[in-house]
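User: I've been going back and forth on whether these two constructs are worth ordering. Before I decide, could you fold them both?

Assistant: Sure. I'll take them in the order you sent them. The first construct and its structure tokens:
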Amino acid sequence: MYKTILVPLDGSDTAASILEQVAAFARAYQAELVLLTVGPTLPVSIPQAPDIQLTLTFQAEEYLDRVRTMLEAQGCEVHTTVCIGEPAVEILETAKQHDVDLIIINSRGGEGAPSPFLGSVAAKVAGASSVPVFVLHATPEGEDIHSHFSPG
């Protein structure tokens, strides 16, 4: 049913708290995981913007490599990608590029969120995705509270 699953991660402990559930889901469906981190676009008015952007990209790649190693040790097939731009746009574009069947995203909500249950990025992705979006809500400690499934 699901062959390729996109998992956007922002580098936070809260985002990473869903990885155990993601691994179990991927193993159950024998699905390949595509891990994505989206870095910010820096204003060109910052003199060191290219150097800062390169450093941030390198740090994101290192982070995803650590996560990939952990997930591969749990029997998952994992690919990684780093993009620069607006998170929801890049998540949706990466989903198309990798022909994913499902997006699993973490959301803890927050002030100014369009919904008390979905953070702004998760809400944008769930509302605009052409594939199903499974949103896992977790505490910073990783305790699952509940989940929400958007059929896409």
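The second construct, handled the same way:
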Amino acid sequence: MITCGTDWAEDHHDMALADESGKLLAKRRIGDAAFQVKGVGLDSREARAVLAAAPEPAAAARLSAPRLRSVLRKTGRQRYIDSWVERLRPIFAAEQLHQLPAVEQAMGRQTLALVSQLDAACRAADDLAEAAAAAFAAHPDAEILISFPGIGPVTGARVLAEIGDDRARFRDARGLKAYAGSAPVTIASGKSLVVRNRKVKNQRLARPATSGFSGSCDTSVGGLGGWRGATRRSRIGSELS
């Protein structure tokens, strides 16, 4: 009797075959490298289209370059199609651990059902995002919020929903910074001085604010310098403590 064991992780899973005595017969790590690209995941249009066209490993290995280009173009992608094809085809054609043909076929049908559900969820999310962006654009504070690097219509709508448009809600800028979690916490005891990030905060507001700060680091020399200075001060404070 042969036993198969699987150890799952976020970006890969390990599979092992052992006999009745527990002797290891084979071991293979299977990665999810096909769509591990910045900004692209299994919920992307490209990944869903490829999974729908080839829900089984054998079907993916048979995908020709023209067929894969056609699938990617139907998703609306116009750039880097050849680069995608050159990267995906070797991954699909690589040697993989297989189930029995009937089992793989059944798992392929299950994959198609899951992709259909994922398609419906992604379409609903896109519709909701469009509605939120349209409502946000009609607000008089929209132009102010989207002027910050990294803040777009959807993240701007979230920031506006969390902060509100009542100018008297926060007494000063420090109150808003504390509410958003961007104001540090200073702990002083004797000769020890430690400055730490604020953990108690509005998490729904902190996430888009963090993405906005990351955007300012990418597009602004001053923003990047501020980030490096804050990191340096935090390291010095930790060493002094």
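Notes on the second construct follow. The beta strands are 3-8, 12-18, 24-31, 185-189, 192-196. Confidence is low (pLDDT under 50) at residues 237-241.
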